[in-house]
DNA sequence: GTCTTAAATGCAACCCGGTTGCGGCTTATA
DNA sequence: TATAAGCCGCAACCGGGTTGCATTTAAGAC
């Protein structure tokens, strides 16, 4: 419960501090994986999902968190890392395991940026690799 | 209505030919953009969405079409190109315009593949670049 | 052609993530 | 303490996707 850290981050980004916001940001910062609305709902039993939803919207607008779409149909969120706003260069690769349905952050692997035809203006990148993660691969190794 | 072409493709992929399947595949092959279930529903008024849904599932399994997730919340489909099955190398880049909400196929731009840590087995790639398309950029040029 | 069977289809209902309207509560400021 | 702005919980809603089931269609046997 590093509340201090959450509070500092919120103040630094110009977001009003409330108990719920501390809880939501705390959960995201402690998690090693991006979390969906449902994940947060489960972890924060006492908080209504609409509150979490609105909180995430505010966080996103103020660059406290950013969202990624791993193709599972539910958007996932993770706390932004650097002090400054998340830029394209900060976007990292994600890996979605089709067996255990977990999404991994590969934070050291920057999402690649291709050259686009003239006229396309890039705002963000969504780069998801799908397949089988090491753990699941080991588990099913016997049969493949 | 190049029915012949659709029928050939279905037979070649080992999919039973029905009138609905010809319609669905025809619509996808004629479209310059990937289509969602809702898009197909609108274009094929006479066909029930559950039929389209199941048809797409069968098409996907038999590599007649593949799906992409452009982060809009609705999966889009496009007809596979080559005679053989779609491979990772065939996956191309998509661009989603945040203004007009259209998804563009950049067929000449192969989706990049990063090097993953050991143990990750890749099946597919989802690479979406988001921003503003040339047409919308021109339209809003006056104010930016 | 007719029969039989499996597959395909339409309909209606459902599921679930996401979203919104609104009344009540909390916080900030005077 | 009074007031206003913003936050929160509840409940209802929305839309894409999915499923169960009865009906229709197509493929093969006779």
What name does the CATH topology of chain A carry? Answer: Arc Repressor Mutant, subunit A
Oligomer: homodimer
- Poorly predicted parts of chain A: none
Biggest sheet strand order of chain A reads 1-3-2
Radius of gyration of chain A: 17 Å
Largest interface: A-B, 34 and 34 residues
Number of domains of chain A: 1
Distance between the termini of chain A: 43 Å
Considering DSSP H and I runs of 4 or more, what fraction of the residues of chain A is helical? 25-40%
Helix-strand string of chain A: HHEHHEEEEEH
| The CATH homologous superfamily of chain A | Winged helix-like DNA-binding domain superfamily/Winged helix DNA-binding domain
Largest sheet, strands/sense/barrel of chain A: 3 strands, antiparallel
The gross shape of chain A turns out to be globular
Q: Return the average pLDDT of chain A rounded to an integer.
A: 87
Text of the CATH class of chain A: Mainly Alpha
Report strand % of chain A.
25-35%
The name of the CATH architecture of chain A is Orthogonal Bundle
Helical/strand content category of chain A: alpha+beta
Q: Number of helical runs of chain A? A: 5
Based on DSSP secondary structure assignment, what is the total number of beta strands of chain A?
6
């Amino acid at each position: 419960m590093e509340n201090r850290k959450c509070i500092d981050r919120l103040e630094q980004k110009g977001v009003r501090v409330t108990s719920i916001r501390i809880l939501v940001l705390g959960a995201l910062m402690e998690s090693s994986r991006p979390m969906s609305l449902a994940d947060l709902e489960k972890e924060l039993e006492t908080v209504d999902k609409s509150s979490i939803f609105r909180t995430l919207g505010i966080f996103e607008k103020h660059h406290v968190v950013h969202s990624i779409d791993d193709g599972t149909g539910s958007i996932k969120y993770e706390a932004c890392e650097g002090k400054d706003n998340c830029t394209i260069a900060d976007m990292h690769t994600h890996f979605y395991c089709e067996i255990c349905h977990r999404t991994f952050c590969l934070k050291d692997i920057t999402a690649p940026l291709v050259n686009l035809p003239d006229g396309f203006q890039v705002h963000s990148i969504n780069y998801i690799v799908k397949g089988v993660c090491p753990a699941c691969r080991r588990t099913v190794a016997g049969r493949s």
